[in-house]
């Protein structure tokens, strides 16, 4: 086959991408990792991680710093650039970056996911009292009253973090029980600063120059009420970052990339790893496993097309 | 600071930013903010590459509550581009280098 710029291009620098990069660089593949902003992904906005083996507790930024440092030992090239689109039709796959086009034999897509929005017109409050990141913004709400929306691990863990700063967190959840891990639930129920508003959803966020109040609807009774609030944190799940993927890759109903056990997507030579993938669990521990498998699968693929 | 980035405080904001003879990028940050730390290398690269055309500054929001309060900054990192004392562009959250360059090009 004809010469390409790279053997492998990894898209995304979270735990899945960095692990794929570590394995590929150690295998001496001609590999480059393209990261849109800076390595880390959602881990960067995670305050405290206590379920990643080997670390009894570590902050997100610290863990990422170590992962990046480890890839540097094997000279992984990490470039700050954005993949705008892909052409996967030939053996030589083309990636359109912000400033140039590159070709590669194989690709690992590890672009992860982003917080899902409520879609009730809250955009205008971003940075003005509305947040998806407690570790970024919590100290701005010192001794204030805030509302958090969600009932999963992220919602509960981050609400607990908020209580270090705020006077009160009202956790609004659409059901009457939480999906979060039991240990997180126990900590939240014991915390005096957290109050739950069950069976409820936000119908609007209001304020002049920033968040001043929210409107809450009880989904069982239909009753609506306003609640004064200085801030609003949204943790209602995630959406896959697949804007650049285009048609051609099989996705599941929620838009995540479908793979087999080898992280192989519907297109030979294109692999997916981590949160972007159709997977039952989205954790750092699962992302690094995916990344390792994806890199080894890419290496096998490259070997085979050489023959 | 040796890297072309000027530390601004509430006292020096008016002189260094509003009355600057060059456009100014101000990076509102705090030591506890992971994403702020993460984009620091990008800010440093911008200072190196565009430092002759735009003044690159940063403001610690913990030590200087007045300036971020005045501009309604309630999330960090927040990056604001000023020219002649007026806001030209404002970005909240982590940003790609290319997008930040597009943003400062509106002022230079």
Could you list some keywords that capture this structure?
heterodimer; A: 307 residues; alpha/beta; FAD/NAD(P)-binding domain; seven-stranded mixed beta sheet; 6 helices; 23% helix; B: 108 residues; Glutaredoxin; five-stranded mixed beta sheet; 4 helices; 34% helix; 27% strand
CATH architecture of chain B: 3-Layer(aba) Sandwich
Largest sheet of chain A: 7 strands, mixed
Let me know the number of strands of chain A: 17
Order of helices and strands of chain B: EHEHEHEEH
User: Which percent bin holds the helix content of chain A?
Assistant: 10-25%
Q: What is the averaged pLDDT score of chain A?
A: 94
**Secondary structure tally, helices of chain B:** 4
Oligomer: heterodimer
Q: Rg of chain A from C-alpha positions?
A: 21 Å
Largest interface: A-B, 29 and 25 residues
Q: Classify the beta-strand content of chain B into a percent band.
A: 25-35%
Kindly provide the name of the CATH class of chain B. Alpha Beta
- The CATH C-level name of the largest domain in chain A is Alpha Beta
What are the low-pLDDT stretches of chain A, counting only 5+ consecutive residues below 50?
A: none
CATH architecture of the largest domain in chain A: 3-Layer(bba) Sandwich
Strand order of the largest sheet of chain B: 1-3-2-4-5
> How many domains make up the 3D coordinates of chain A?
2
**Which radius of gyration of chain B do the C-alpha atoms yield?**
12 Å
